[in-house]
Amino acid sequence: MPRARKRFGQHFLADASVVEAIAAVLSVDASDHVIEIGPGRGALTAPLAAACDNLTVIEVDRDLARALRRRFPRVDVIEADVLETDFAAITDGGVRVVGNLPYNIAAPIMMRLFDACAGGLAVRDAHFMLQAEMAGRLAARPGTRARGRLSVIARYHCKIEPMLEVEAAAFSPRPKVTSTFVRLTPRPPPVVALDVEALHTVVRTAFGQRRKRLGNALQSLDLDLTALGVDPGSRAEEIGVSGFVAMSNQLHLRHG
Fold it and tell me: Which of 227, 239, 243 is nearest to 193 (CA)?
């Protein structure tokens, strides 16, 4: 089997009991269309391929992609960088996504998936293995220090549920951190943003200067925070999704 490549941030699942637990959480049906991101050596690919008739895997490593094609001839293996992959070209909807994500690009991958959902891609659910710290940031509530841009955008699009805690010993090579397997279930947002790009702009600007109070951090956007019921003296991590949506809607109506 090909060796792990440091430049791809590869840590392969190697504990059969963890793979079995993940497969139980996923509970894949034969009619499901599943997209697996970063299948690596195929530890999770094997039970997925056995359970469903329509499995697509996206693997950037050429040697691993070649090995996966030989081992799973019925699986659609796409050799590509997931950050450059058009999900809509793979499926027209109803897809389930799963992945053991490289820690260094997990956030951009999730953001890309959220963008695809905003663009109309019907994702039934997504399950990702993440660094435990990132999983904490993903699910962070307003008022907590872990709260960040990813927290807001994720909660706008999805319900977030930590499913399994996974020790470093379950991977090869062994990472220096523990991991969390999380479930993201797309749902209608609590408050609808008129323009998702405007939402991204407000959230990015607010957390880009997170030590500043919002009145100063968002000064360049020329928002009337008081009119929205948002305290200009508050900080980004204190604001809920509805507050950010209200600010983005004002931005869109003023400058859209």
Answer: 243
**Residue type at position 171:** F
The verdict on whether omega for the bond into residue 190 sits within 30 degrees of 0, i.e. cis, is: no
The residue assigned the tokens 């996206």 is 58
- 3-state secondary structure string across 57-115: EEECCHHHHHHHHHHCCCCEEEECCHHHCCHHHHCCCCEEEEEECCHHHHHHHHHHHHH
How does DSSP classify residue 174?
P
Mean pLDDT of 237-255: 95
CB 238 within 8 A of CB 149: no
Statement: the pTM of the whole predicted model exceeds 0.85: yes
Is residue 13 a contact partner of residue 170, using CB atoms and an 8 Å limit?
yes
Q: Which residues pair with 158 in a beta bridge?
A: 186
E strand or H helix that includes residue 24: helix 16-26
Which tens digit of pLDDT belongs to each residue from 108-147? 999 999 988 888 888 999 999 999 999 999 999 999 999 9
Order across the sheet with 54-59: list the strands.
Answer: 76-79, 54-59, 33-37, 95-100, 123-131, 179-186, 158-166
For residues 152 and 244, the answer to whether their CB atoms sit within 8 Å is: yes
pLDDT single digits (tens) 4-24: 445 445 678 999 999 999 999
Indicate if the alpha-carbon torsion angle 112, 115, 121, 122 is positive or negative: positive
pLDDT given at position 8: 46
Q: Are 117 and 196 in contact, with CB atoms under 8 Å apart?
A: no
